[in-house]
Specification:
This protein is of the alpha+beta class. 18% of the residues lie in helices and 21% in strands. The chain has helices spanning 2-5, 46-60, 102-106, 155-159; strands at residues 11-13, 19-21, 91-94, 124-128, 131-141, 144-152. The strands form 2 sheets. The chain has a 4-stranded antiparallel sheet with strand order 3-4-5-6, with no helix packed on it. A two-stranded antiparallel ribbon has the order 1-2. A hairpin with a 2-residue loop joins strand 4 and strand 5. The protein starts with a helix and ends in a 5-residue tail after the last helix.
């Protein structure tokens, strides 16, 4: 098994210190030092340690088993998404963007107006965790601003969205 990983041309030292090709696992030659490897003439437990190492290696790469698609979850009737439903995410409503030089930013003061890249009445972007998910229009509720969702962004557009 291990020789298969190295193409079978792995060199090992025999008991006499000579370098030679490794023998296939379980034959007793190569790493054990000759025809007597794993028998009464070899170090006690060498063959069993090698065999245990091989079994451990094979167990590490056992084939994974998955439940078929469409099968109901087994976790007390809850799906995995239920675990995430109470996780809070930041929501940002973006009215517009602009770019300014440092000089223009330093010149800002009370009464300064910053022009944005949006036309009045154009829908604003609704971002969840920095990703564009919807567009809406600004509304006033009592004395607070709000956003009425008018369009949900298609998943394909959401994935290719430059905003992040």
């Amino acid at each position: 098994m291990i020789d298969d990983l190295h193409g079978g041309d792995m060199d090992v030292r025999s008991n006499s210190g000579e370098l030679g090709p490794a023998d296939p696992p379980g034959t007793g030659a190569g790493a054990g030092g000759g025809a007597g490897a794993g028998t009464a003439g070899s170090a006690p437990g060498l063959a069993s340690a090698s065999e245990e190492s091989r079994r451990s290696f094979e167990r590490a790469f056992e084939k994974a088993e998955f439940a078929p698609f469409g099968e109901k979850p087994r976790q007390g009737g809850h799906s995995n998404i239920d675990i995430l439903l109470d996780v809070p995410l930041p929501i940002t409503v973006e009215l517009g963007r602009t770019s300014m030089t440092i000089r223009d930013i330093l010149d800002l003061g009370p009464g300064s107006v910053v022009e944005l890249d949006r036309v009045a009445g154009e829908p604003v972007d609704i971002l969840v965790n920095g990703k564009l998910v919807a567009r809406g229009e600004v509304v006033v509720i009592d004395e607070n601003f709000g956003v009425r969702v008018v369009d949900i962004v298609a998943p394909a557009e959401r994935l290719s969205s430059p905003k992040s």
